[in-house]
Amino acid sequence: MRTVAGKTDHVVVIGAGLGGLSAALHLRGAGRSVTVLERADRPGGRAGRLELDGFRFDTGPTVLTMPHLIDDALAAVGERREEWLTLHRLDPAYRAHYADGSTLDVHCEPQRMAAEVERLCGPREAQGYLRFAAFTEALYRTSMRDFIDRNVDSPLDLVRLNLVRLVAMGGFRRMAPKVGQFFTDERLRRIFSFQALYVGLSPQQALALYLIVSYMDTVAGVYFPEGGMHSIGVAMAGAAAKHGVDVRLGTGAEHLELRGDQVVAVVTSTGERIPADAVVVNADLPAAYDLLPERLRPARPGRLRAAPSCVLLHLGTRGETSHHTAHHNLHFGTAWRQIFTELIDDGQLMSDPSLLVTQPTRTDPALAPDGGSTFYVLAPVPNLAVGRQDWSTLAPAYQERLLATLEERGYAGLGASVRTSRIITPLDWQRDGLVSGTPFSFAHSFGQTGPFRPPNLLPGVANLVLAGCGTVPGVGVPMVLISGRLAAQRITG
Ligand SMILES: Cc1cc2nc3c(=O)[nH]c(=O)nc-3n(C[C@H](O)[C@H](O)[C@H](O)COP(=O)(O)OP(=O)(O)OC[C@H]3O[C@@H](n4cnc5c(N)ncnc54)[C@H](O)[C@@H]3O)c2cc1C
């Protein structure tokens, strides 16, 4: 494994997203002196917090999987997660609501889930589910150690026994036909393949390899931290500070000072110069490159294909409005293939949308004032590279359209119960410096995966490492926690 050149006693981490915080904890655990610079006044990055009229909303991830990766980062400095975070395992992990009026609860215990599948779709499909759960678990075990949780210096590094196994398992075929080998019922095909969207693709385009996300999501378990997902970043930053990491919130990095090919200091937006032996950059990729002198900026991000974006609608309500809902609800429309074509290829809004509606107050009522509820509605929309929408004028009408769709899909009276709301569109993500106005970074197509994704070491700069969703292994809380560890290993060896 290649490592950075030179001394590594003091490392500056730019960005306190979950990737940056993971790097900071692993570096501190390995005995480095660490300074974290975060331009925002809170840690967590995309796992942020919005407070509106006494309602508290998560602004990014809501589905927490693989919490042992948080344990791992905290354990690097000798801390136990239980001392910092109270996690609830969600049951059901999701409730799927279909256009024909049927519902399916996703339980992350195979026998209970098989019984639920049998209830809705019959015994053959239940057998298919048990085979699917075993297959995705094997896929996860085969791919994790050799392909995801590992620094790779060249594609040749991947030529191992597990690569042969992955090929034999069909990991490099497409996701939709693979899922079709286990299920004939269209409803099951959807609930076990919609996760392709989490990696920025349709189930027809995504590699079957990414069924590991379905495994994390529907088999391994979904969790929710008390106080919301934002508590994860707060806990990680708190543990880092307790162990001597200098976490400076409200301090942006303006540029990097180089001597030859070595970064020697980070200059902040207030002009302060912070000497550094090595630097980890957690900012989204184009913004990370902008910190470098022009001669060293890689040209590639412009040519990478961004994932679709999303609109988030945060609603704080009063009174009972949610009928038949769980913590996480997936509302599928009738259309399926077509919505991915609209989103990804045609740059259009979904004509018959599928939506994620999360109601965090189901698990933690303290997130709303007494008698209130919070709703987080996520609608996939095209990113700004392909989309033709003018969000500066469209946003209010789109909010009304989403509310009307929700009322039709079982949330009768929702509109009238709203006490506070905020809509976030691709323009907001763009203003935050996120590539193509999407918070989901680059799509995980074959050519942007593994050794073909922007690597965490930059050519031409000897002591700079990237961490976060724009680099390896990729997008999502589990992946960026791993990316922080991989970045730290590039420094510590
Ligand atoms: C709406 C939404 C829903 C999602 N849903 C899920 C989900 O359910 N489950 C899941 O696993 N993942 C989900 N994700 C993805 C996941 O949240 C992200 O992949 C992950 O949090 C990104 O972390 P990161 O470390 O790469 O970067 P970020 O969170 O973007 O952190 C980067 C940090 O760097 C800071 N920064 C940037 N430039 C500078 C500078 N010059 N100086 C100082 N600081 C700087 C930023 O302020 C930011 O805090 C979701 C994301 C969003 C937005």
TrEMBL record:
Domain of life: Bacteria
Pathway: Carotenoid biosynthesis
Enzyme Commission designation: 1.3.99.26, 1.3.99.28, 1.3.99.29, 1.3.99.31
MF terms in GO: oxidoreductase activity
Record InterPro entries: Amino_oxidase, Carotenoid/retinoid_OxRdtase, FAD/NAD-bd_sf
Swiss-Prot/TrEMBL keywords: Carotenoid biosynthesis, Oxidoreductase
Boundaries of every Amine oxidase domain copy: 18-491
One of the GO BP terms on file: carotenoid biosynthetic process
EC primary class: oxidoreductase
PANTHER family in the record: PHYTOENE DESATURASE
Homology family: Belongs to the carotenoid/retinoid oxidoreductase family.
Protein name, per record: Phytoene desaturase
Native organism: Allocatelliglobosispora scoriae
